[in-house]
Amino acid sequence: MPDIIYTKVDEAPELASASFLPILQKFAAAAGVTIGTKDISLAGRILAAFPDHLTEDQRQPDDLAELGRLVKTADANVIKLPNISASVPQLVAAITELQAKGYALPDYPEAPQTEAEKAIRAKYDAIKGSAVNPVLREGNSDRRAAKAVKNFAQKNPHRMGDWSADSKTRVSSMSGNDFFSNEKSATLPADTTAKILLETADGEIILKDDIHYTAGTVVDATFMSAAALKEFLAAEIENTKSDGTLFSLHLKSTMMKVSDPILFGHAVKAFLAPVFEAHSAALSQLGVNPNFGLGDLLERVKDNPEILSDINSCIAARPPMYMVDSDKGISNLHVSSDVIIDASMPALIRAGGKGWGPDGQESDTNCVIPDNSYAPVYDETIKFFKQNGKLNPATAGTVQNVGLMAQKAEEYGSHPTTFEIPQAGTVKMILADGTVLHEHTVEAGDIWRSASTKKAPIEDWVNLAISRQKAENCNAIFWLDADRAHDAELIAYVTPLLEAKGVADKFDIMTPRDATRTSLEIITKGQNSIAITGNVLRDYLTDLFPILELATSAKMLSVVKLMNGGGLFETGAGGSAPKHVQQLQEENHLRWDSLGEFCALGESLTFLADVKNNSRARVLGQAVDAATQSILDESRSPSRKVGELDNRDSHYWFARYWANALATQNSDVELAAHFEPIAKALADGEDAILAELAEVQGMAADLGGYYRTNADQTAAVMRPSATLNAIID
Length: 729
Fold this sequence. Notes:
This protein is an alpha/beta fold.
């Protein structure tokens, strides 16, 4: 097994790998460190799921499953780049592209009828959404800004939008009958199994059977009323129009791949209610599913002028929508994966509460977040900045995060136990001994879900929080609400563990709303805090605070200390990656910043040195840190504009700084001697290399695909400098 696994992913991060990975493997080999790859891309996962439909040379192993086994061992050392968490439209697009390339994959069955179609649908549904992270995250999360990155952000503060006290931007959430208000939770005293059934007037329907739980697991159950959601959305559409603001919906339809696409579909249907009422039969015949978004709807009705006319009339009568791309007419409701709350809300807040409207102008926005579980975080943030003005990145402190995410913790593990209720009745979760653990009275169309969190990850999370607080010696807050069912069960774990370690006085326990305000007050003073949170809040906060502090979350240091001793090193967020690919295709300029990869690489090499007593890996890691610092100090990061530095330039400079650091260190004279001529060649070749990299910019680039690019074409695009290639190869 290679010393380090570097994941093959999608979009901009994968394009960057075509340039960076040859450099990484070249330098690592000199120190006897091997770097292997595993394919967890969307296309790779699709192909691995259907070997029987492919020729022998087209088949590929299930690398995700293999990595899932590896991360449960002490030998795991994985650098994990951001991958696509596919919505149904993305999944279908990837399938279509692969079919066009000669892969005889089955179509995605939108309405499976036969057992064969249901089996195909089940395989595809296992791929969509967040299929990767729950498998690989066998440990809890330690996310923070690397010191070099934070220092650079303070010395070179990014632009922040101005906030005004009279801003109309606000957060709207349901006042009841949502997941938050209907939640029930209990901690299981012993190992058991459970089943979930729906009791109706016509009899029982088994929703899920043979669910296994271990002793100490916290098991939650809740539901959202479809009727209450419909009423809420209709009211907010009218309120938005009255306010003169943009209508925007913020969900997580990738990670919450069952529940949130349904919520998204409700919003599409509510916004176009007159259309769905007038053309119900025709839309059904055309296969329209509002969960797939306005984009899919428009494609299906493109040859029906009457429906198109009514859609346009309805949109004209509604409040203007928050836009993904106003130039292309792509709205908030086009595709569920286009507006992801953890990226969209921080960007809007950073911009002073402004979103882009269909007229190409910025405007105040009604941020619709139906469920009230975590909406108060964004609501309180907006209120704070209305009262205090924008954050100053030059003086702001930082909010680190310790996140409970191991072993499919909390809501992100709820996919197999989330259901759109087929008819009215009572949902019951029944244990093996006949005990009814949870029950809810539901109506047809309600969304019911159960999530669980095991004892071992909770204890590991608390211990990680204690370790990080001791290392940082700063404010630390458990973001838990004693009045919320699930959080109360966690507090019952947290409090005695802190007391047993004698550190209870080092920590606060606050509701997410109170913790938000306290954390903002702390960083406004230039001080630091640690947010100790559950899985969803981990995801949200590790975008919110980095985007405010650093302008991006892609530069965060993300260490997952795997529970069995291995290490998983994540490289930041990929939310803007599709736009990066589009720019590369149009202008041959890739603005993706690989700083996250650099930071993860340094941590991975240091981890390798620690666990395998590899002194040369330590030297490599120390040199990576020096090179990363030089990238920042010398402003060698990519620019957004064609004709300026891009991702490939930054890789050249990183290789040069890395080689120089290795050539000048005195811990390993053989390594120094090996890298001295490489460092000299990279320095001497500067003019030629930069000219060759600049020469290709400004013209279209053909990658031979999007979800599965052609390797040779991608290498030609991402490695256009013959001078640099000669040194590296």
